[in-house]
Amino acid sequence: MTTFTASTTAEAVVPVARERVWEVLIDPDLVARFTPFVSSIEEKDGDWIWTLSGLKVAGKGFGATFTEKMTLDEGRRIEFTHDPPSDSHERAGVHGWYDLSDHGVSGDSVLLKTSLEICVDLPLPKLSGGAVRSTMKGVMAQMGDRFSKNLLNHLGVS
Fold it and tell me: Taking every pair of C-alpha atoms in the chain, what is the biggest distance, in angstroms?
């Protein structure tokens, strides 16, 4: 197995109160429903167990289940760290955060910032790293774009 890593950051002003965005980001069912390639997210003892499917990397189908330790600063920040059970052999994981802050003079908007670093172990040679990272970046962009669109639709601001 070879470990491949890709990362992304983004920020956007969402024209609703911060609490409305927060409610979505802490709901594993909504996050799963809004994010392509995420077939489910199960909450267990403060961890979120993500299941991905339908991905193609270097022409090969790829799915993964991984455990994320969620740390919440109520209404303001969510940090997540890959934290697999000791007896597991998870092939993927994410480290990152969501940061929410009031935006605008009346607090009627929220500035949402995100940072994600995804790592996957794949049965591919190291030499394929450039192509794999490029594919990962494209998939991450697609996931982010679709999540954003679904979030805005859900909030009634699209």
Answer: 53
Contact 112, 101 (CB under 8 A): no
Specify burial of residue 48 (Cβ count, 10 A radius: 0-12, 13-18, 19+): buried
Sequence-distant (6+) residues with CB within 8 A of 74 are none
Q: What is the mean pLDDT of each run of 10 residues along the chain (158 residues)?
A: 91 95 98 96 95 79 91 97 91 96 88 96 85 89 95 93
Buried b (16+ CB within 10 A) or exposed e, 54-81: ebebeeeebebbbbbeeeeeeeeebbbe
Cβ atoms of residues 28 and 44 within 8 Å: no
Centroid of chain to Cα 109:
22
- pTM confidence score: 0.91
- Residue 88 tokens read as 């597991």
Contact 30, 154 (CB under 8 A): yes
As beta bridge partners, residue 43 has 48
Pairing of strands 38-44, 2-14: unpaired
Distance from C-alpha of 28 to C-alpha of 45, rounded to nearest angstrom: 13
